[in-house]
Input
Amino acid sequence: MSVSLIPDSWPSADGIWHDLHLAPEALGAGLPAMSDAAIVVEQGAIAWVGAYAELPDDYRQLPKHAGQGAMVTPGLIDCHTHLVYGGQRANEFAMRLAGASYEEVARAGGGIVSSVKSTRLANEDALFDAAVPRLQALLAEGVCAIEIKSGYGLSLEHERKQLRVARRLGQAFGVTVCTTFLGAHALPPEYAGRSDDYIRLVCEEMLPALAAEGLVDAVDVFCETIGFTLAQTEQVFQAAQALGLPVKLHAEQLSDMGGSALAARYGALSCDHIEHLSAEGIAAMLKAGTVAVLLPGAYFTLRDTHMPPIAALRAAGVPMAVSTDHNPGTSPALSLLLMLNMACTLFRLTVPEALAGVTRHAAKALGLQATHGQIAAGCTANFVLWPLGDVAELAYWLGQRPACSVVRQGRWAVDGMGLHRSAA
Ligand code: NIG
Ligand code: FE
Output
């Protein structure tokens, strides 16, 4: 399929955006909302933001875009997804409804390995086509940056295919895509009983080759009783470190393996899931500046009852991000706003915390904090105008997609509010 989205032809968003209501956190950590605000966009970047009354004279001649009192947030960031894969696994949903656990499904040959089979069978174009509507669903809600992991190929050829599709999606849709190599996601069937050999392949062949092709922004491991051991995880981290690549970890989802403390020792960008995170893990993450990525979609889908230690993370001051974890097994979620709701309802985050979780802290989980996740001079012009009166509405509606307008990478990418047509 040829998707002719041609972001380059979208209207430029350069100029003065005025009549805006900036949401809390939009301007930075802990900052309150601001009404009658303006944003100046120049050459795709934010040049100035503040109260319209204080707009510097130098900018007054620029074209104007009327925001019609919209609530504005930074572009949303989905910092943990497995968006590129073949097939789907609704059958496992049914198995779990009949009582099987995630581990039982995995041990019965389902789970990740079943997606590996369908991903290996699909060619690059088929994987791209399958991922397009998923990405579009996220973009329609104001997502401006997304992480996409490999991990359903589990061989050099098929991991490469997934990562190439991730890069292509970024180009086709004019969206920031961070690629994460997750070769150590599961043991491919041809390596049954030889997990150390597979980890050697990951470290010595797959990762160096894919990194050399510019396909890897970060490296992740599924550290779990049904994934890889701490020692194997450390081997992958060492290989990443040798290549100068940052690491992150699927950690402490089903049990406390101590993966988060290990990841923190390697300066991990994030530890994700962390339902069973210990006090030692929290202390290590705090020291390393590692973000705690909360994935309420997986928690919900697996009907988990073991909450991540939110109160302890909050008390310690560990930044918490929120993401879809979109994947065909444990979180077939395609709404980051629904994850906001779940982060608040299931994990008891406040609305500003949840909002920081899909903006500023999500940016940090990807190492993008200098340019993404807030509305500040010098950042890429990524922001969303919402036709909402109360910021809590972002987390409140269930399945309602507010018709937002999105400036992504300095261009009008979505205009649900019809602002472009009526702009001054
Ligand atoms: O983040 N935990 C491991 N990885 C995914 C699940 C992948 C799958 O089941 O296909 C996760 O939940
Ligand atoms: Fe995941």
Summary: Residues 94 and 100 are 9 Å apart (CA to CA).
